[in-house]
Amino acid sequence: xxxxxxxxxxxxxxxxxxxxxxxxxxxxxxxxxxxxxxxxxxxxxxxxxxxxxxxxxxxxxxxxxxxxxxxxxxxxxxxxxxxxxxxxxxxxxxxxxxxxxxxxxxxxxxxxxxxxxxxxxxxxxxxxxxxxxxxxxxxxxxxxxxxxxxxxxxxxxxxxxxxxxxxxxxxxxxxxxxxxxxxxxxxxxxxxxxxxxxxxxxxxxxxxxxxxxxxxxxxxxx
Length: 222
What we know:
CATH superfamily of the largest domain: ATPase, nucleotide binding domain
CATH class of the largest domain: Alpha Beta
Largest sheet: 5 strands, mixed
Strand order of the largest sheet: 3-2-1-4-5
Number of helices: 6
Helix content: 25-40%
Order of helices and strands: HEEEHEHEHEEEEHH
CATH architecture of the largest domain: 2-Layer Sandwich
Structural class: alpha+beta
């Protein structure tokens, strides 16, 4: 009798929500989906120091979390838009799966948990290890996961389901360097009168998207 009740409770639970908050983009969706339901731009106020293409103004990840109250305020508004505007759900009725990273500061992880539990009355929050999840989705238990982000690229070897922390590596060869190179090609070389505000991150991302789209179209035609 108890087993039947447990199975009934399991199948009656609503599909969990996945949150993957990155420096530049945030991926959201449901556990049953094969792909993210939506890919949103992370608010400009979050990780602001890491989004600058000016190397002299770029800061460290820890610099983004000096003001804890401001961080929680921005996260609360961002999560509110995700739940009630983008996904159209009541978060108190869902389990939340937050994709955590090995380099994520503890203050960010704790702030997200505090907001989800106290502000949105979420019942359960599961923190999943983002550095190994892509490998598990393939059905393999050993391999190397390369995570190319905007701020850095992380390499995590995994053997028999266990991350090899001693072999973990991080390099600064990341997305912002691609943006920086593209900006240098467009800025001041042929148009010295343009201002720096013209080629911000949003404009450069738009150029990259159109370039990739054009490349794919040409490959289909050939």
